[in-house]
Amino acid sequence: MNKSNIKICGVKNIDTIICCIKNKIKFFGLIFYTKSPRNIEIAEALELINFSTNKNIYSVGVFVNEKLNVLLNTLKKLPLNFIQLHGSETNAYIKAVKKNNKIKVIKVIMVKTLKDFKKIDNYPDTDMFLFDYKPSKNELPGGNAKSFNWELLKNVKIQKQWFLSGGINIRNIKDIENFTIPYGIDISSGVEDKLGIKNNAKISSLIKHYGTNKKFL
Questions:
Q1: Segment 177-210, tens digit of pLDDT
Q2: Domain extent at residue 65
Q3: Residue 133 CB burial class (10 angstroms; 0-12, 13-18, ≥19)
Q4: Do the beta carbons of residue 1 and residue 178 sit within 8 Å?
Q5: pTM of this prediction?
Q6: Which of 89, 142, 166, 174 yields a CA-CA distance of 20 to 30 A from 110?
Q7: DSSP secondary-structure letter at 23?
Q8: Pairing of strands 197-198, 5-9
Q9: Residue 217 counted as domain residue
Q10: pLDDT cut 70: percent of the chain above it
Q11: SS3 state at 9
Q12: What is the CATH classification number for the domain harbouring 79?
């Protein structure tokens, strides 16, 4: 089968970046959400982005209902390749971000039932989508090690490139091909020892087990 691009989300140190590059992983996520154990400070993020430059890996800044002026100010400080909006941001918000920034936007859609995919139509200006498990009120917006019913993907036609996320690990990653082949697969908790602590051996084992796609866009 055609392998999907891999994104490791919640990266916090250069050692993890080195591991991702070694394993030909195409994306790494930097989370700017203070309530997350994977949150990263601007200075630390800049160090990782600078290290990754020209190394065939792409940075993704992850934001959750961030104030527009704060996000725009962050983009002035960090040369991110993508931003991922993981909250209830509107299409108008996306247009405002892109108005003065040459950056691609990934909009997250939380999925529980087939009806949730109808939200795709609300975001004509996004560049990509990411489909994730819909959390309960007491859970984090993402990285909960839980999956939605992938069977739903058999009934959906998605015109734009998209990522699949939520509870993906070495035990179930190959099961995805039974339902769909996404453009990308987003993994966080599945390669951690505990919340926010990535395990390079788990990353390498997962890639060895699954493989990666060298193509990008």
A1: 999 999 999 999 999 998 889 999 999 999 998 8
A2: 5-210
A3: buried
A4: no
A5: 0.93
A6: 174
A7: T
A8: unpaired
A9: no
A10: 92
A11: strand
A12: 3.20.20.70
